Amino acid sequence: MIDVRLLRSDPSAVRAALARRGKPDVMELLDAAERHDTRLREITAERDTIRARVNELSKQVGAHRRDGRTAEAEALQAESRALGETESALSAETDSVQAELRECLLRIPNLPHSDTPAGASDAENPVVKGPVNMPPSFAAHQRVPHWETAAELGILDNERATKISGAMFTMQRGLGATLARALCQYALDSNADAFEEIRPPSLVTTATLTATGQLPKFADDAYAIERDDLWAIPTAEVPLTSMYAGEVIDAELLPMRFMAHTSCYRREAGSAGRDTRGMLRAHEFDKVEILALATPEQAPGLLTELRDRAEKLIAGLGLPYRIIEICTGDMGQSHHRSFDLEVYAPGCDAWLEVSSVSWFSDYQARRADIRLKRAGQKGTEIAHTLNGSALAVPRVWAAICENFRQADGSVSIPEVLRPYMRGAAEIRPR
User: Fold this and answer.
1) Rounded to whole angstroms, how far apart are CA atoms 375 and 299?
2) In terms of domains, do 250 and 375 share one?
3) The pLDDT of residue 242 is above 60
4) Burial 390-407 (b: 16+ CB within 10 A, else e)
5) Of 84, 107, 130, which residue is a domain's last?
6) DSSP E strand stretches across 145-304
7) Does any domain span residue 23?
8) At residue 341, does pLDDT exceed 50?
9) Is residue 294 classed as helix, strand or coil in its secondary structure?
10) Are 101 and 241 contained in the same domain?
11) Alpha helices (runs of H) in 156-293, residue ranges in sequence order
């Protein structure tokens, strides 16, 4: 959530920054927020004037009664009662306007970083590194979609997953399931040097989902358990961010680094065709998330660190990859600056996003009320948050099945994963 005080003190700067997103509806929300904030300040001034007048009248009433001037005292009391009714009405309006202002602020996206490249859509996201590990060409046996290879090997059974749970659910079997678990363990072990492992709940409150920016805007994309006012997490970012919600953190303890392997739940709306097949889009999938709470001055360095860590994981697998920076028109609501890592899948002939690394400035922490206190300084300030998908299983799994498919139909397991594969170096038909 943007700082309403910044909107008051430097509205032109806020407008200029948000205009870079190229979303007319955002500017309309900004207009509404300014109107509500202006009205709140008007109400505050009116109530202060009323209270001062009521205090003055109270003194005058007392003096008139002492002097026996009953009629004058009663007239002033009548004026005081009328002012009290006006204040009550203003108080009720305050609650309404505050709610409307908060709703606007919750829907207004974060201000893009000044270095975020301009662009209207994902077509304008610049490649900042790569392609890396890209061979001059791919063999015909690598141009087979992963769902065909997986079916031949008996490691993917989406038909039975659909029977159990409905469309767009997946189920890995045998070494396919082992491969999915191995990817998660590989990501966790690779980041254990600096990140505390957390096993968070998979169900969170409305306030928790609101803190990271999924609510209210993306309510339709989330799975809700209305009876208990709980939501299934779309990513471990949600519970990890809110671990310190409503708390003040000693600045000397920052940065705090956390990681988690969780299942993620999303009402992904896949388009007709290949992206609804295999492992490319699913309502439930596994992912390892890395996240940091930081001071504002620590945040830029941490963004680089998280991006480097995600890159090291993908590079270690030997997959062809590239890094793109997300332009202003393609940025998520909460993002201040963001990078995606994509791997190439020759069977799908597509670049697949497998990691997103983002800096949220104070946007999420303000919503969650996460503050820091510096030694020797009065007051507190809002912390900064950053997170990255260390490794998202489905698309990496798919890319492995396509890039490392052998001429005989088997799939070679990347060296770094073999310690987690119970001795298997390749996947062959069962």
Assistant:
1) 19
2) yes
3) yes
4) bbbbbbbbbbbbbbbbee
5) 107
6) 196-197, 203-205, 224-225, 230-232, 248-250, 256-265, 284-294
7) yes
8) yes
9) strand
10) no
11) 158-165, 175-191, 206-211, 237-241
Residues 42 and 148 in one domain: no
The DSSP H or E segment spanning 344 is: strand 337-345
Across the range 388-405, mean pLDDT stands at 97
What does the alpha-carbon distance between residue 375 and residue 252 come to, in Å, rounded to a whole number?
A: 8
Q: Do 194 and 265 lie in a common domain?
A: yes
Would strands 248-250 and 371-373 be described as parallel, antiparallel, or unpaired? parallel
Report the run of H or E that residue 131 belongs to, with start and end: strand 127-132
pTM, 2 dp: 0.92
Looking at the fold, whether 152 and 129 belong to one and the same domain comes out as: yes
Interior angle at CA 102, CA 86 and CA 294, nearest 5: 135
Number of H helices, E strands in the chain: 12, 16
CATH number at residue 399: 3.30.930.10
The rounded distance, in Å, linking the Cα atoms of 71 and 57 is: 14
One domain for residues 30 and 169: no
Number of structural domains in the chain: 2
Residue 226 lies in a domain: yes
The answer to whether position 213 is within a domain reads yes
* Segment 47-84, tens digit of pLDDT: 999 999 999 998 998 898 889 888 998 999 999 999 99
Instruction: Enter the tokens of residue 304.
Output: 């680089």
Q: Are residues 101 and 129 in the same domain?
A: no
Mean pLDDT of the chain: 95
Are residues 361 and 336 in contact, defined by beta-carbon separation less than 8 angstroms?
A: yes
State the DSSP string of 66-118.
Answer: HTT-HHHHHHHHHHHHHHHHHHHHHHHHHHHHHHHHHHHHHHSPPPPPTTSPP
Average pLDDT over residues 260-275: 73
How many angstroms separate the CA atoms of 7 and 12, rounded?
8
Distance of CA 384 to the CA centre of its chain: 13
- The per-residue pLDDT for 275 is 58
pLDDT digits (tens, 9 = 90+) for 4-22: 999 999 999 999 999 999 9
Q: Which of 76, 107, 138 is the last residue of a domain?
A: 107
Average pLDDT over residues 381-403: 97
75 and 216 housed in the same domain:
no
Beta bridge partners of 340: 324, 356
Range of the domain at 350: 122-427
